[in-house]
Amino acid sequence: MTPHRLRSLLRLSTLAALAVLPLAGWATAWQVSVDESNGLPTVTRGGGPVMTAKFDFWAGNWSWTAFQTGFKVDGPYQYSLQGQNKALDFDLQASIGKEQPQTLVWAFDLTAHSRQAGVMGGGIMFQFDPAQISGEMGPPQLLPGNSGWSWGNADKGRRVEMRFDPPLANIYFERGNPAELRAFLYKDPITPGKQQIKAVLNVTGDIALAPTATERFGLVDPASWPDDQLDWRTSPVDLSFLNAQEKPAGKHGFLKAEGERLVFEDNTLVRFWGTNLSAYSLFKSPDEEIRQQAKRLSALGFNLVRLHHHDSPWVSPNVFGDGTRVRDTRQLDADALRKLDLWIKALKDEGIYIWLDMHVQRALAAGDGIDDFAELAKGGDRVDLKGYAYVNASIQQAMKRFAEQYLTHVNAYTGLAYKDDPAIAAVLITNENDITQHYGNALLPDKGVPQHSERYMAAAKAFARQHNLPADQTWRAWEHGPSKLFLNDLEQRFNADMIAHLRGLGVRVPIATTSTWGGNGLSALPALSVGDVIDAHSYGAGGQLEKNPLTSDGMIDWLAAAQVVGKPLTVTEWNAEPFPLPDRHSLPLYVAGTASYQGWDAMLQYAYSQQAFNPGWRTADNWHAYNDPAMLATLPAAALLYRRGDVQLAKTHFVFAPPPATLYNQEITPRTSALLRTAVGLGQLQIALPVTPELPWLKPAAVPADAQVLVDPGQALLPADASHVVSDTGELSRNWQQGIYTIDTPLTQAATGWLGERTLTLGAIEIKAHTPYASVAVQSLDGEPLGQSRSLLLSLGTRAVPKADDKTPFYVEPLKADLSIKAPAGLKLFARDAQAQLKPLPASYKDGQYRITLDGSYMSNWLFLK
Description:
It contains 16 helices and 48 strands. By secondary structure, the protein is α+β, with helices and mostly antiparallel strands. The strands form nine sheets. It has a nine-stranded parallel β-sheet. Strands 33-34-35-36-39-40-48-44-45 form a nine-stranded antiparallel β-sheet, covered by helices on one side.
């Protein structure tokens, strides 16, 4: 997790008194709409982007400059955009609208306030999906005289064209790459004054113009909604009974990986539903709030917490102390350790286990004694070790020194060293730090780190010589082929050495090396398999339920692509961005349902909080689920269904078993593989790593006898005209054309997505929602099947928007719906308000069913029928 993942600067503007656009028909295969993050066009196919655009501007020598934008929806298909570039001293304004059924128009007004010479300029960068370029759309074409571009062929039924009037300063393909086109609004020099540019986008064939997400969800003023009913110190529900038999955490002995399962020493099988405590929440929370939040985490249903960003330089104090005073990272700060000790003790007392990272984003200093520090620092006083650690022995020693200090530290509250505490469930060697895809490039000869490049190149040549591989290809980290064999081997050497060191310290719990993240392909998995578990991170965008697996990848698919035969799968980060996505309340149910069906072992949302738990002023953020009513609306429901095992494991078992030539020589990701995308909804998907002569340390597990073994990554397991998928257990269903996901089990029945003006019937419930997009989950709390249960939890998810400047409380959209629930007579309906008081609500009872009308006059995300 990077410290501040770029968040859109927009604050969606919504207007009262504008009608909601019709929802049906927007899941067509090809669409063009306006991206609300920057006001530029985007083309999607089956819910996944095939053409995106962004603004980029550069000063001299391609020095990138920030361009801040603000986007507003003025009405149906009417938008306005404002932008400012302080470095190049110009402003941009644009009005955007739909002029014809298949035409969008941008009227740009640019104002340069001063002369800027010696700059590169910039404008709009268009990126096209290479798979579509090599497929039916072909490469985009430049129109004459810098007047625009076109993509596709109208004669074949599909074409996108964008024209600029007057013609632009320059339009060209970046380095001859047909997937990236640059349309410059300015080039050197920028002269003072105003200019107007009209851009017209036309589509033909089966491409439809689609509304923005704001229009689809309904153009209303969030200020008309009530404030949320959250108290950040207490839980709106109490699922602490799930942890009652686990207090204190560790009572079953140390955790271990046993085949594909996580079990304790006494052979108790465990499944973890977790979250992350990060950064300032670790070190700046008062002691009494640490204890209180541990209780709240248990009540919300969590049983695993990862302590994250403890070492990151943007956090002060961090585990090394006050960042303004620390000159090296050789020693750990006593005050910081005491805070971590208390978190661990408080969580342990509530039956919650802890995941420790040995490295997240530590910045090495000159005083750390790092070899060749100067070439890495490039005149600065700090170095990010990612990538370099794989070839620099002194960095490896610094990491080992930290691990020893951290893990042998004796907790002042438990009397146990971290390594000796069975409440510590797992450790991670290094966060988001692979060289198989991301950081191998940092070691290349053109990166200005000659000593590190020399070590890297020497290792590549030796590996090529040992295995008779072409030396001129083995070092080329950006390519598939022999380089993927070498990079996996280099990463494995580091991993094996670090694991041996941790075991030598006395670490007994499972060790993860790093994570598959940020677009890692399957060729990154061999080195990860050296650890006891495979760990994965995945961040999605809006519209996850509408991703057509035949054409488009979703965040779930990236997690599924990390499940290796013979290894438990942990997910220490999942979320979606940018904040505040209007559909984010869907994610917990979708993640938990899929994880249960696939048999994944630990699911950790990122993050519960990055800010300290201090009384007073609070902010809203994507990394603060603790005060976000949209995420918390369904996180407890997800915890209950996942930890209780309400959803059955898949009966069908798919194993993708690529031979070495396929795995290492081509890019295989959910983006490129129909097999990976389409298998997930039909059965359990696992990846079988092949025996690889060049990697003798790779010890693949045996493929289960009942598995359907598949070898073609392009094979789709769904019909070409499929619009939905139902699990082989019949309990899960996703209709991407409608954008609806349902869970139908004896103890949990739920629906989420575009429920508005539809009637959905599950086993014991019927939902008639009038709010366009919503989540409704009904669950038994007493363990009796729905229809017989006398204690039920109703979780209701809708949009939640923070106040101006990301202040809390949130505005929360009241759910309008009619619900019918089969249950025994004599139950009463209640809501719990912010003061934890139960408020009776009306519910009628007839023919064995409770009928509940939610008319929007009262807002609560959690109701109780008991």
